[in-house]
Amino acid sequence: MDGGDTKLRERDVAVEDARSVAAQKKELPLYVSRIKVHPKDVKGLFRRLKWAVLAFCLTIYYVAPFLRWDRGPTAPDQAILIDMPGRKAYFFMIEIWPQEVYFLTGLLILAAIGLFLVTSLFGRLWCGYACPQTVWTDLFMWVERKIEGDRNARIKLDAAPYSVDKIAKRAAKHAAWLAIALATGGAWVLYFADAPTTLREFFAGEASFTQYLFVGIFTATTYTLAGWAREQVCTYMCPWPRFQSAMLDDESYVVTYEKWRGEPRGKLAKTQIDADPWAGRGDCVDCNSCVAVCPTGIDIRDGQQLECIGCGLCIDACDAVMDKVGRPRGLIRFDTLANQTCRAEGKPAHHKFIRPRTMIYAGVLVLVSAVMLVALMLRTTVELNVLRDRAPLFVTLSDGQIRNAYTIHILNKTHESRDFALAVSGLAGATLAVAGAEAAPATRIVLAAKPDAVASYRVFVTVPAATVAGRASSSVRFDLTPTAGTGAARYDSVFLAPGK
Amino acid sequence: MPTKIEKDEITGTDTTGHEWDGIKELNTPLPKWWVWTFYATIVWSIGYFIAYPSWPTLSGHTTGVLGWTQRGEIAEKLAEAKAQRAPFVNRIEQAPLDEIRRTPDLLNFAMAGGRSVFAENCAPCHGAGGAGAKGYPNLADDSWLWGGKLEDIHTTIVHGIRNANAESRTSVMPRFGADGLLNARQIDDVAEYVLSLSRRATNADGAKRGEAVFVENCVACHQEGGVGSTEIGAPNLAANIWVYGGDKATIVETIRNSRAGAMPGWTGRLDDATIKMLAVYVHALGGGR
Questions:
Q1: A130 contacts: CB under 8 Å, gap ≥ 6
Q2: pLDDT, tens digit, 9 for 90 and up, residues A363-396
Q3: Which among A7, A58, A71, B58 is least buried, having the fewest CB atoms inside 10 angstroms?
């Protein structure tokens, strides 16, 4: 250390990096109000795509419950129906019983893996186009635009004092929102009961309390989430934006800003007629169109960010501006980050859809689909469950025979009444009898099962003492065969005896 | 410990000063509606305090304006369930036993009701599912002391066996050994004879001698061949079923000191419909005739 430095230190007062708690508190609010987003109307390819997907999704949602599918007189004829009281789910030709709920698990796995695959290939298509939050928010924004006008008109209306005009517009908007929300909540319950009947009952005031309750809940959530919460659902509530970046890599298609040709950005200034107006500057004219149209209110030029739902409306906005100023389209484009690096370096762009992650997702998708398909094709229309009585374990009869009792469940998944013959094998001299029935014990008994129902019988299996002498436990197999038609089932159980 | 609060370049938000391996925590303000939601839950809880029992007092608690209690709720639900059962209970009260057994919906109801009443009142002695125990007959087999018809079972449940009830089923087996009616040798012989009825005798001579003793002392109740009588509750000695055990030592003990199993009568403890359901259930356990 030399003398000069020391002098300097003595002379200057060291500035501490400290602020009073009060000052810090003032700077750091614990809570902030939402800054309202006023998305501007935009036209272009992505906007048209978004309308198309919206129309498609809403059509499915509202029309699907009314589709019919004939299943005979004993089953409902609604194509898509979740029958809670009947404990069954119908999807066109597929019919699911409660014990087959693994089909639903499979469906959810397919949906999740499908989402992963699409995201790793094309980014947040789900968020930007197909997610119900996006679809209904878009619909609500359209209503808002029709009633209150476009972005600037709405900002002006927000700032304006309350007047007849403002109140009328606001009332009209909220009434329209509530009507849509009611239709949304109303359609939801149609999936759980016969749709035309429920619709009539709903307006006649005859629907059940549960139905009105669920319509109320979904009306309220739709109105709140699509009308008021909007992008906050995506940023604060939804877990998907938080971990979807794990599915993305440099080769995934996302909404990108071509920083290399956009910067340095600046307003388009008047230049001399012969001078190149683009010399020494980027293509971005800093018009903020991309920000104005964004439904989540972000600036895509800041780079990839959690709030971006990948809808591509900023691409439409920017392309329109680029056309106007005569620069090439695609300053904001649907592209991969790897391609952006290539383009910046003047190298040709490339597409790389086959990558380890996409292959793994696709592989799992194919595998799960195959398992589901096989399971569906092998689905039997008859099932047999045998529950052995545990008290008493066995009964010694007065003539020395040993008897075990079993509860037999026959699952008849067909739409007609059927008779099934039940027999046991593995026990010499075994006879069967239905508890309570008058018929004498026989080696084969016939049990009836109603359509689409589980038939339960308590059945006694009796064997001579010699058959099970010295064996406390013997294997027994129950074979169930229909007296007519196809389908058979078997069940392996045990037969207990004193073992003496 | 918070160390240094700094401004994050990308977001423009301050950090909390917490840092883990270079990862810093942003102090992002929460949306304001979150705090309003929080306040709303507080308001909601005030409503709860007013409507429901909440605050303890010196001698109890505030009851709330709705007057709701858990006990009240369960009483309401029980009353509701009872009202739902009432039509069936009425029909069972009216119907003869055999009709209950032959009407599917009544049988279903009686089986469910009988099962739960059996588990509560009968299973302690007769075992779950009527499996029985030493001294307590198995109700699922085909051997009955007092008869296995629906009416017989019903009567047994209503009045019981060997109790203070005037109509209870009663029969007394003499204490052949303890009261000196038979000597040890005779008892041994008659036990051999009883074993021979189920083809298990090991002493043919003894059994032969025992037959004479049996005819003299036992036939009156246990009948010829030891087949017993459900009229007087005399067990069938020729079957493979033994309430107290079928080995020779137990049979000798039974002859010497007698047996007198008792069962309470259930009339007055259970209502008529319940006893009917119980009878139907026991009949269906596997031995009903």
A1: A53, A57
A2: 999 999 999 999 888 888 899 999 998 888 999 9
A3: B58
* B242 contacts on A by Cβ (under 8 Å): none
Q: How confident is the model over A57-75, as pLDDT tens digits?
A: 999 999 999 999 998 888 8
Backbone angles phi, psi at A461, to 5 degrees: -110, 120
A318 and A338 in a single domain? The answer is: yes
Residue A314 forms part of a structural domain: yes
> What residue of B is the nearest CA neighbor of A402?
B141
In this structure, what token pair is assigned to residue B128? 């779950």
What per-residue confidence (pLDDT) applies to A2? 45
Q: Which residues contact B69 (CB under 8 A, 6 or more apart)?
A: B53, B63
Helix (H, G, I), strand (E, B) or coil at A386: strand
Q: How far is CA A451 from CA A410, A415, B19, B106, B141, in A?
A: 11, 5, 66, 22, 34
Domain-embedded: residue A338 = yes
User: Which residue range(s) make up the domain with B235?
Assistant: 184-257
A299, A316 in Cβ contact below 8 A?
Answer: no
C-beta atoms of B240 and A460 within 8 A: no
- Residues A300, A183 share a domain: yes
For the domain that residue B216 is a member of, what is the CATH number?
1.10.760.10
Contact A477, A371 (CB under 8 A): no
At residue A27, the pLDDT reads 62
Taking only residues 102 to 121 of chain B, the set having a beta carbon closer than 8 angstroms to any beta carbon of chain A reads 107
Q: In which residue ranges of chain B is pLDDT below 70?
A: 1-3
Identify the three-state secondary structure at position A75: coil
Backbone dihedral region for residue B268 (phi beyond 0: left; psi -120 to 50: alpha; all else: beta): left
pLDDT at site B244: 94
- Distance (Å, rounded) from C-alpha B116 to C-alpha B43? 45
B171-217 residue pLDDT tens: 999 999 999 999 999 999 999 999 999 888 888 899 999 999 999 99
Check: complex ipTM more than 0.95: no
In a domain, B237, yes or no: yes
